[in-house]
Specification:
There is one protein chain. The chain has two helices and four strands. A four-stranded parallel sheet has the order 3-2-1-4. By secondary structure, it is α/β, with parallel strands linked by helices.
Length: 98
């Protein structure tokens, strides 16, 4: 799949160079992104899945920023009272805002 065929996702001039996301769909997303020269880093709480970064989206803090942040099937597992914190952390990981 060529992500350049999806102009709604990003402007060609602002095409992401790197991204971070959870492990659920890593193989699929990593393949698609890296075919389009976008480096993919994974984040998960499960150390045994060998993510690039180990952490919980509610408390994870990383100085590195990413052009794109993807989150699949994680928000529904977060308690309602922690939802704002999780979304705030996701936003803080993103370098540019769409």
């Amino acid at each position: 799949m060529d992500l350049l065929l999806l102009p709604d996702l990003w402007d060609i001039e602002k095409k992401p160079k790197n991204s971070i996301g959870n492990r659920t769909w890593t193989k699929i997303i990593k393949k698609i992104l890296e075919e389009n020269n976008i480096k993919y880093y994974s984040l998960d709480v499960a150390e045994d899945l060998n993510p690039d970064f180990i952490g919980d989206v509610r408390t994870f803090n990383l100085d590195k920023k990413f052009d794109m942040v993807v989150a699949f099937q994680i928000l529904e597992h977060i308690p309602f009272e922690d939802f704002d914190k999780a979304l705030s952390n996701i936003k803080n990981m993103q370098m540019i805002t769409c």
